[in-house]
Design goal:
Elements (H helix, E strand, L loop, with lengths): L1 E6 L3 H11 L5 E7 L4 H6 L1 E4 L5 H10 L4 E4 L2 H5 L2 H7 L4 E2 L3 H8 L1 H10 L9 E3 L4 H9 L3 E5 L8 E3 L19 E5 L3 E11 L4 E3 L4 E7 L3 E12 L10 H24 L7 E11 L4 E7 L6 H8 L4 H10 L12 E9 L11 E4 L8 E3 L2 E4 L4 E4 L5 E7 L2 H11 L3 E3 L1 E2 L2
Parallel strand pairs: 1-2, 1-4, 2-3, 4-5
Antiparallel strand pairs: 6-9, 7-8, 7-9, 10-11, 10-14, 12-13, 13-16, 14-15, 16-21, 16-23, 17-20, 17-22, 18-21, 19-20
The chain binds adenosine monophosphate (AMP) and glycine (GLY).
């Protein structure tokens, strides 16, 4: 029997575990997570730690025989957990640290995009470098976006007109040289996620749109993401075939060039895992890169895995053997999902709120995130981050919308959704 290690214990990882356990191949799943996700707890041998650190993973793999690992969140990827696993002969779905920089450093990413000849797809940008005058003149002629380098759970980007009105409001004393100022782009955003085997073979998921602002009408602060949608026929209304083809081509170019970059530095394998291109299509029909992530999107990955027709475990085996040969296939329904989050999110809440889910709600459409269960009482509580993801499928986005906002009334607690 296969022994699989999943790292992470949020809703995305709960869906990964679900798909693995739906496979025709039996497996024994282990999970290293940061909370006792009740679904993951039932389906795997779950070990909970405050942080997933290399020494914890090393101890774990010394005590357990693991055939392959899947890493969900970006923090362990930044911290080189894949290097540790690969060095111990455990193939890993999740790239080595050197490749993960495409997400973990926004400055590395923009410079890499320039270096490989894709600068046409970046907005105008400038790295702070302590040159206040230069930044001021850059910001005078246009609306800007300020991006702090490093990982900030989707909250390290400040957009003019939304998070601040005028350049003078930016606290320069708080800024070191690890900040990028970008021209603000206006248009429709989408995510194009691909998966690759470490040897440059790549398959693409359909495009999907997430919405990151906390409140209706795209107001409020940026969050890890509040929900996502895809229309029927694996499409989004504002994209045509050429747009999708271009985004796929850009994702592939990033992978190919990261692989060459790794090869020069003698890193093996090449990029293996998911790559998530975040794009914006502007009103004048141009495509720009917002950023790249080195993992499956959350929650986009939940909806995409739910629609995936292939046996996910078998796909993982192809990836970890270094030979991806199967074409991905997806169901063609429209789908929409929203996160229910604790009342004060994205601020940290230390209070645990009761969650009541009406029994008539289809359990298959609920994915547990940052919640815990009182086993004796069979009762759910929210923790500090995104609690539950609820999704539906339908004939169109409108159909999904009607179903979802009707169903979701059956979940009660101190929770917010949009
Ligand atoms: P990121 O963490 O880079 O995905 O950025 C979070 C959000 O900030 C994106 O989903 C966009 O809504 C917004 N954003 C980032 N860069 C830009 C840009 N150059 N122009 C407009 N919006 C942006
Ligand atoms: N959907 C946002 C993220 O995964 O970062």
């Amino acid at each position: 029997m296969l022994n699989i290690l999943v790292i992470g214990s949020g809703a995305r990882e709960a869906m990964i575990v679900r798909k693995l356990s739906e496979s025709k191949q039996n497996s024994n799943i282990y999970c290293l997570g940061t909370s006792r996700n009740p679904y993951i707890d039932k389906k795997t041998n779950l070990y909970v730690h405050d942080f997933i650190l290399t020494d914890i993973v090393l101890k774990f793999i010394n005590e357990n025989l693991i055939d392959f690992a899947i890493i969900g969140p970006e923090v362990p990827l930044r911290d080189g957990i894949s290097n540790l696993l690969e060095n111990n002969d455990i193939p890993c779905i999740g790239p080595l640290k050197i490749y993960a920089q495409i997400e973990t450093s926004k400055i590395f990413a923009r410079k890499f995009i320039d270096k490989i000849g894709l600068s046409n797809y970046s907005p105008n940008y400038i790295v702070f470098n302590n040159n206040y005058e230069k930044i001021k003149s850059f910001s005078e002629s246009k609306k800007i976006v300020v991006k702090y380098d490093g990982l900030h759970s989707g909250k390290g980007v400040k957009v003019q007109g939304v998070d601040f009105n005028d350049f003078s409001e930016i606290d320069i004393s708080n800024i070191n040289d690890n900040v990028i100022f970008e021209e603000k782009l206006e248009g429709e955003e989408f995510s194009l996620i691909s998966v690759t085997d470490g040897n440059g073979r790549i398959q693409h998921f359909p495009p999907i749109q997430d919405y990151k602002r906390l409140l209706n009408n795209d107001l409020g602060p940026n969050t890890g993401s509040m929900g996502c949608l895809i229309n029927n026929n694996n499409s989004l209304d504002f994209l045509n075939e050429n747009d999708i083809f271009l985004a796929e081509k850009i994702n592939k170019q990033i992978i190919d060039n990261l692989n060459s970059f790794g090869k020069i530095k003698n890193y093996r394998p090449g990029y293996r895992g998911f790559i998530y291109g975040s794009y914006i299509k502007t009103k004048d029909d141009k495509l720009y890169i917002i950023e790249f992530n080195c993992r499956l999107g959350d929650p986009e990955g939940i909806i995409l895995l739910n629609m995936l027709k292939n046996d996910f475990l078998e796909l993982c085996l192809e990836l970890t053997s270094g030979y991806l040969k199967t074409d991905l296939e997806f169901r063609k329904n429209a789908s929409l999902g929203v996160y229910l989050v604790p009342k004060n999110y994205p601020k940290k809440t230390y209070e645990k709120y009761d969650i009541y889910i009406n029994k008539s709600l289809n359990k298959q459409n609920i994915v547990y995130g940052n919640v815990e269960e009182d086993i004796k009482e069979l009762h759910l509580y929210s923790l500090s981050s995104r609690s539950l993801f609820y999704f539906v499928e339908g004939t169109s986005i409108l159909d999904c919308r009607n179903k979802l906002y009707n169903d979701i009334k059956l979940v009660n607690g101190n929770l917010h959704y949009r």
